Amino acid sequence: MKKFLSLVLATMMLACCFVACGDVAETTANAVEETTAAETTAAETTVAETEAPEVKTLVMATNAYFQPYEYYEGDKIIGIDAEIAEAIAAKLGMTLVISDMEFSSIIAAVQAGEADFGMAGMTVTEERLKSINFTSSYANGVQSIIVKEGSAIATVDDLYAEGANYKVGVQLATTGDIYSTDDFGDANVVRYSNGNEAVLGLVGGDVDCVIIDNEPAKALVAENAGLKLLDTAYADEDYAICVAKENTELLDKLNVAIDELTADGTIDAIVAKYIK
To answer: Beta strand 209-213 with 168-171: parallel, antiparallel or unpaired?
Structure first.
């Protein structure tokens, strides 16, 4: 009888052992499975993060006091150049960031890599080409002359008349500055940080006229009573985007984008939106 009971107890203990071992094995298997799943998920997340395309920024240097090409509406910079740059960035799959600075600092910022390109109603000149590259032209500009009503300066020719000694106001480092310095001499050119300041100089009698691009000139005359634009243009020019000499890859991409945006009518539509 004792032997029989011992045999029963041994059998029961062995069964419990199998059950316990089975539970342990199952628990271990579950733990391994969960760990593997977690590692797989982590690996998939890492791969996804690695493969996800990074949206890069495209930094545009400008001087936002050049209506209608770039100017502030509240805290936002808008205008022809701003919208064309947005369209270019979209074509390149990038996000545009606009950096406002003095016009005279734009080329230096692009050269130093602080901005990817400069766009501010900028004209291609031989002097600028020595230090920077330019894209193909995306718009045309005209240098115009602002004077006071009743001014002795009635035409462009009056500026060149024998004995003329007029003070000409310009925005520093613009083509208006470059051309007028060549034509009338450094002593007769007064340079300002932007067109608004130049016009204030005209209103205050510090200069006899202001030479600036036609579209900003029209806006400045509309905002300041007693001023007018001469009928004759001072100079005609083409606007382009400046890029660092070594950044030929971006230059090529910008040219392709400009060609496509010109062909599909996007640039003309943007210009027409601001220039009636």
So the answer is: parallel
Could you give the strand order of the β-sheet that contains 70-73, starting from the edge strand earlier in sequence?
65-66, 70-73, 76-78
To which residue do tokens 């041994």 refer?
10
Phi-psi region of 163 (alpha: psi -120 to 50; beta: other; left: phi over 0): left
Which amino acid would we find at residue 33?
A: E
Angstrom distance (rounded) from CA 58 to CA 56 = 7
Segment 181-225, tens digit of pLDDT: 999 999 999 999 999 999 999 999 999 999 999 999 999 999 999
Rounded Cα–Cα distance for residues 44 and 38 (Å): 10
Q: What is the pLDDT of residues 102-129, one digit of tens each?
A: 999 999 999 999 999 999 999 999 999 9
**CB distance 244 to 110 below 8 Å:** yes
The rounded distance, in Å, linking the Cα atoms of 80 and 154 is 31
DSSP 208: S
Cα separation, 186 vs 178, whole angstroms: 10
- Residue given tokens 């003095």 in the structure block: 102
- Answer yes or no: are the C-beta atoms of 147 and 158 closer than 8 Å: no
- Global confidence as pTM: 0.76
Q: Which residues have CB under 8 Å from 235's CB, separation 6+?
A: 142, 143, 175, 179
Contacts of residue 79, Cβ cutoff 8 Å, sequence gap at least 6: 64, 66, 67, 68, 69, 70, 71, 274
